[in-house]
Write a structure and sequence with these properties.
By secondary structure, this protein is an alpha/beta fold. It folds into three domains: about 1-130, 3-Layer(aba) Sandwich (Rossmann fold), CATH 3.40.50.620; about 135-170 and about 210-300, Serine Threonine Protein Phosphatase 5, Tetratricopeptide repeat (Alpha Horseshoe), CATH 1.25.40.80; about 305-425, DNA Cyclobutane Dipyrimidine Photolyase, subunit A, domain 3, CATH 1.10.579.10. Helices cover about 45% and strands about 5% of the residues. The chain has helices at about 20-25, 55-75, 85-95, 110-120, 150-160, 210-225, 230-235, 250, 260-270, 275-300, 320-325, 335-345, 350-365, 370-380, 385-395, 410-415, 420-425, and strands spanning about 1-5, 30-40, 80-85, 100-105, 125-130. Strands 3-2-1-4-5 form a five-stranded parallel sheet. One of its GO terms (biological process) is photoreactive repair. May have a photoreceptor function.
Length: about 425
């Protein structure tokens, strides 16, 4: 009897799961799916806030609980643990007497550290596979070291091969789960030393974690509301559920697969309509791929002050000024409204993110990495590569071909919040009495 551990990471779903699909009908297999809440995710950042804040952690807990339920429905289960992942997995593998471990491959330093530490401890094979991007590294028409440093060059080279993108069908049955590892304990925010996350009714929508909710959102935005048809025109708005897809929280932790999203877009284009907006959603998925490949190419450079350009930058790094930015008290209404939305809901529009990031590093002269770390703590759609890649871009140390890009937040506010409705929504000082 072969004993296999499947270690869930940022692939918290049963659709588009190549390894689980392969194991699906295997005889003489006992399968132990496991997820570990790594204690380091909840440590305090040197700037004083938790590395993972309450709203983001709540979304992850909901996602893991939904995965456990979905696994139970197909004859399996999920062992949910807490600790240092490499230590927990080592102990579980020893107790289970596992023959091999399968997991999704990650591309950034903290995650790679865990992979290497685990491989050093274990004498059994640990197999890694890619599942986060539309295209796998091996499908690219160039090596990672030759990845273009400008997105447009990358896009033009990969668009012709996108017709190869096809998600794997959903897993319907899995080999038996070992009874000695069954555990109904579910973790709470208190277990991680975090306060309760309170829902704010002003939020663009009620985000709930999990594959079921991710697939529901996919269906609603594309098929039910057909909002995809207007995406290019509405994506820079600030208020409302359907100005953008809002797929990003589920894409970030892999409860929704990028390939599944892509295949639904293509199906919609074939059966309903293809226009510039439907194409633009694919365009944005390619940006996600691109930042992941940039992280793979440059490694730790994406976390350095000079970024991938090795630029020499000097900042004032006034902590009090940073705190005012972080808590939405800079005195600039547009910046403060966006930062308040982030703190209260764990979400902010793309337009807002560009503006507050530019304001922090270009106007306030604060190290962009402080801002990237705050986003990591707060955003429910935090994705290592996308977050740090976008911050580098705005700071002028990343993949932006334009030198000295600058967002004039007052002009931007006049353009995208002309009637001040967004600022009035989020700032009590501007709200109607």
């Amino acid at each position: 009897m072969k004993k296999i551990i499947y270690w869930f990471r940022n692939d918290l779903r049963l659709h588009d799961q190549i390894i689980l699909k392969r194991i699906e009908n295997q005889k003489e297999v006992v399968l132990l799916p496991i997820f570990c809440f790594d204690e380091r995710w909840f440590a305090k950042h040197t700037l004083g806030f938790p590395k993972t804040g309450s709203i983001r952690a709540k979304f992850l807990i909901e996602t893991v609980n939904n995965l456990k339920t979905n696994l139970q429905k197909i004859g399996s289960d999920l062992l949910v643990t807490f600790g240092k992942t490499e230590e927990v997995l080592f102990e579980v593998a020893k107790r289970f007497n596992a023959n091999e471990i399968y997991a999704e491959k990650e591309d950034t330093s903290e995650e790679i550290f865990v992979e290497e530490a685990l491989k050093k401890r274990l004498s059994i094979p640990v197999h890694f596979h890619e599942s986060k991007t539309l295209l796998k590294t091996e499908q690219l028409p160039f090596s990672i070291s030759n990845l273009p440093d400008i997105f447009t060059h990358f896009r033009k080279k990969v668009e012709p091969i996108l017709d190869t993108v096809q998600p794997i069908e959903e897993v319907e049955k899995l080999p038996p789960f070992p009874d000695e590892f069954r555990n109904e304990h579910s973790f709470s925010l208190q277990d991680f030393g975090l306060n309760e996350a309170v829902f704010d009714s002003r939020a663009v929508m009620h985000f709930t974690g999990g594959e079921c909710e991710g697939l529901k959102r996919l269906n609603k935005f594309i098929w039910q509301d057909k909002s995809i048809l207007h995406y290019k025109e509405t994506r820079n708005q600030l208020i409302g559920e359907n100005y953008s897809s809002k797929f990003s929280p589920w894409l970030a932790n892999g409860s929704l697969s990028a390939r599944r999203v892509f295949s639904e877009i293509k199906k919609f284009e074939k059966e309903v309509e293809a226009n510039e907006s439907t194409y633009w959603l694919v365009f944005e998925l390619l940006w996600r791929d691109y930042f992941r490949f940039v992280a793979k190419k440059y490694g730790n450079k994406i976390f350095l002050k000079g970024g991938i350009k090795n630029k020499s930058l000097s900042y004032n790094n006034d902590f009090e000024v940073f705190e005012k930015w972080r808590t939405g008290k800079t005195g600039n209404d547009f910046v403060d409204a966006n930062m308040t939305e982030l703190m209260k809901t764990g979400f902010m529009s793309n337009r807002g993110r560009q503006n507050v990031a530019s304001y922090l590093c270009k106007d306030l002269k604060i190290d962009w990495r402080w801002g990237a770390s705050w986003f990591e703590s707060q955003l429910i759609d935090y994705d290592v590569a996308s977050n740090w890649g976008n911050w580098m871009y705005i700071a002028g140390v990343g993949n932006d071909p334009r030198e000295a890009r600058y967002f004039n937040v007052n002009k931007q506010a006049a353009m995208y919040d002309q009637d001040t409705s967004y600022r009035k929504l989020w700032l009590d000082s501007l709200a109607k009495p």
